[in-house]
Design goal:
The chain has 27 helices and 17 strands. α2 packs across α3 and α11 packs across α19. It starts with a strand and ends with a helix.
Length: 630
């Protein structure tokens, strides 16, 4: 894996472009500590520059970038892996192409040389790359189907700048961009900012499954979808579908296990990581390495489950038991590496397990995406409940129920049990087809946004862009598509990419393939979610490999007690963020209301762990990144 940067500057004769692109590249050295590479071309009225940092995983000796075509008319910088690279390479060799490396970057470049833009549809992998076609006078910048690899860009009258991480772009701008109101509102509702938005005005994320077509002569920019297929439901027996699911998962694990460096698997003991670890162990000629994280606080620890699976598959199992100090001591390093506010607290243990795993292997397979691909979230269950509830309970009665329920489920501590879940579900009930968009709001509700944000900074419907794409999600297929569009790209994938890259290691998610995604979309919804049985077809496909009922056990996930931390070790820092002078100069929040909710949490009047953590992460970013940027 790597990181890439690039720019096109118009009228750059008095600009040291080489120095600028090198500065951008230094900002992402953690993404590729092994080597760097540059390409700079000065034209009559513009300068074009590409750069990359490389973490060597495949083709350790000859994979240096940028890579050029034989006639030097096309050049590429590439971040990612192409899992059908050998198959594509054979096709190209038959057509007369000669290869000088084993790098997937060369395969992508020559595939483009042979097939043009249709080449992008032929790729099975994770990637963000840019190709400069000198003959056409165009640059093409592409991002993979799920958005595993990040890509940010700024398009202006001066030209185009793009980068794997925001910090590279911000570091070379003439002045700090203003905060973008859409990005701000999305963050406080979702706790993260999905593509195409960022926290900065004028800077965007390239959406997944898309590519930019940029004309270097006219400065015109267009964005195109790579795949635009519509998946139809098929008629197939459950047993046949189950066999196909198992085959697809096994094939994906096999293709994602190709590496010239040491490789292992994260093993939490949940359904997804257990199945991936099992498949990897079955395909390996020797014992595989598995890695799990445990907590010294027993209510959060689940190492017993991962230990059971490790014994079952006979892996060399590495168990890391961590404390609150292990997590909080890396807090600034982890949170500020996202470059914009990001409040998924599971990023903290994700980084710890990645950094400790990096002492043993450079690549780890993960179970990420299993819930989205196979219908594993509780929120998918609640979708059906919302439809039944709203058909039976009139809206005026719901308001009364909500008032009573909020009083009864009020909590003083950071507890996430039945009361917390009931409160969340009831407050997400919607009579206007917006239920699922409400349930994914992990931060502040619409009503709360009007209480805590200044009017000048609020926008009416932050999720309008996504609701236009999927206007009325009402079944499992719709819910999963919303998650792919928003939560998967904006939260889970970002978390894994930034935390693993910060540890200079690569994570691969075998469940996140376009082939598996499209196949499960084609199945009847009840094959995935039947009654309360989530991920049914995946569990049935592998149930004979595990002890009876093992795959039915619930899993807590990477939860961390941030609400308690904020009351204790982080209390003084949090109080500094509600200082009157600081809030007045910031001019984003309603001062009295934001102070009240924070103090109520700190004084255990009412627990608001998620909201206060969201506020805390924003303020930490604002003070340490935004104010620190000149």
């Amino acid at each position: 894996m790597c990181g890439i940067n690039g720019l096109v500057y118009k009228n750059a004769e008095n600009t040291d472009v080489q120095n600028i692109i090198e500065k951008m590249n230094k900002k992402i050295i953690h993404r590729g500590p092994d080597e760097d590479g540059f390409f700079v071309e000065h034209l009559e009225d513009k300068t074009i520059a590409f750069a990359m940092r490389r973490l060597s995983i495949v083709d350790l000796s000859t994979g240096k970038q940028p890579i050029f075509t034989e006639d030097k008319s096309k050049v590429i910088v590439f971040n990612g892996q192409i899992y059908n690279s050998e198959e594509l390479k054979k096709t190209l060799v038959q057509k007369g192409f000669v290869f000088h490396t084993s790098s997937p970057a060369e395969v992508v470049l020559k595939l483009y040389e042979c097939f043009g833009l249709e080449a992008f549809k032929m790729l099975d992998g994770v990637f963000a790359f840019s190709i400069y076609d000198k003959i056409l006078g165009k640059i093409f910048i592409a991002r993979d189907f799920f958005g595993d690899k990040p890509l940010h860009y700024q398009h202006s009258e001066k030209g185009l700048i793009w980068a794997s991480e925001l910090k590279s772009i911000i570091s070379v701008l003439d002045k700090k961009p203003e905060i973008d109101n859409t990005g701000l509102n999305l963050y406080f509702q979702l706790t993260y900012i999905p593509a195409p938005f960022t926290i900065y005005k004028g800077i965007s994320k390239l959406e997944s499954n898309s590519f930019i077509e940029y004309d270097v002569n006219t400065n015109a920019l267009k964005i195109h979808e790579i795949h635009s297929e519509k998946i139809e439901k098929q008629q197939i027996s459950f047993d046949e579908a189950k066999k196909n699911v198992r085959k697809l998962v096994e094939e994906s694990v096999s293709s994602r296990s190709v590496s010239d460096v040491s490789l292992g698997a994260f093993l939490s003991g949940g359904v997804d990581s257990s199945i991936i670890s099992l498949c990897l162990s079955k395909q390996s000629d020797s014992k595989i390495d598995t890695f799990s994280i445990g907590f010294d606080k027993k209510s959060f620890d689940e190492t017993e489950k991962s230990r059971l699976v490790a014994n079952l598959i006979g892996s060399n199992h590495h168990e890391f038991v961590i404390s609150e100090k292990d997590l909080t001591s890396h807090l600034d390093e982890i949170l500020l590496n996202f470059d914009e506010p990001f409040a998924d607290s599971s990023a903290l243990p994700s980084y710890i397990v990645a950094s400790k795993t990096a002492d043993y292997v450079k690549v780890a397979l993960t179970g990420d995406g299993g819930d989205e691909v196979f219908g594993g979230y509780n929120k998918y269950l609640i979708g059906g409940i919302n439809q039944k509830y709203t058909s039976l309970v009139p809206i005026f009665l719901h308001q009364s129920v909500l008032k009573v329920a909020n009083a009864l489920t009020k909590q003083k501590g950071d507890e996430r049990g039945l009361k917390f879940k009931v409160r969340k579900a009831l407050n997400s009930i919607d009579y206007d087809h917006s239920f699922f968009y409400n349930i994914i709001k992990l931060g502040f509700t619409d009503k709360e946004m009007s209480i805590y944000l200044n009017e000048k900074d609020r926008i009416k419907n932050p999720l309008a862009y996504y609701q236009q794409r999927i206007p009325n999600p009402k079944n499992l297929t719709d819910f999963r598509n919303v998650d792919k569009l928003i939560s998967l790209e904006g939260d889970m994938i970002v978390k894994v990419d930034r935390t693993s890259m910060l540890a200079s290691m690569e994570c691969r998610a075998p469940f996140l393939t376009r082939e598996i995604w499209n196949y499960t979309l084609s199945l009847p919804d009840e094959y995935l979610l039947k009654g309360n049985n989530k991920k049914m077809i995946l569990k049935k496909a592998f149930e004979n490999e595990f002890p009876e009922q093992f795959l039915e056990k619930s899993k807590k996930g990477f939860g961390v007690p941030v609400g308690d931390w904020l009351r204790q070790g982080m209390r003084s820092e949090l109080l500094s963020y509600i200082d009157d002078k600081f809030l007045e100069e910031q001019d984003i929040f309603d001062i009295q209301n934001i102070k009240k909710i924070v103090l109520n949490h700190l004084n255990s009047v009412e627990d608001n762990s998620f909201k206060i953590w969201t506020f805390y992460c924003f303020q930490k970013w604002y003070k340490n990144t935004y104010l620190a940027t000149k």
